[in-house]
């Protein structure tokens, strides 16, 4: 009868530990609220009238780390779980555009297509060798 108490305590501790580890549901999500508060609105996009794309992208990435970051054509792209943030030069500052991953990938394909996986893919191009379907 005494072993039941340590087992129950161990199970409770494990459950609390697992819950604590998975508590950050917004990790790797675009910090939309923070961007809206930090930068001015310009139509559907956001702007920083004084800082260039590299600095603005760095601020966003510092606030919430992106999966990946790439630079192309003067723009900086941040890849989050389901979204792409494009930071472009704009009137001496920067324009910040947020697209869901599929739309952003298609829109910015010439800049990110050689670096990031196509939407819905596993992220690598290896399809196996030998006979069989699905290649």
Automatic annotation (TrEMBL):
One family name in Pfam for this protein: DUF4247
Q: Which segment of the chain is annotated as a signal peptide?
A: 1-27
Record key words, sorted: Signal
Q: Which InterPro entries match?
A: DUF4247
Write down what this protein is called. Answer: DUF4247 domain-containing protein
Q: In which organism is this protein found? A: Streptomyces chumphonensis
Q: Output the lineage of the source organism.
A: Bacteria, Bacillati, Actinomycetota, Actinomycetes, Kitasatosporales
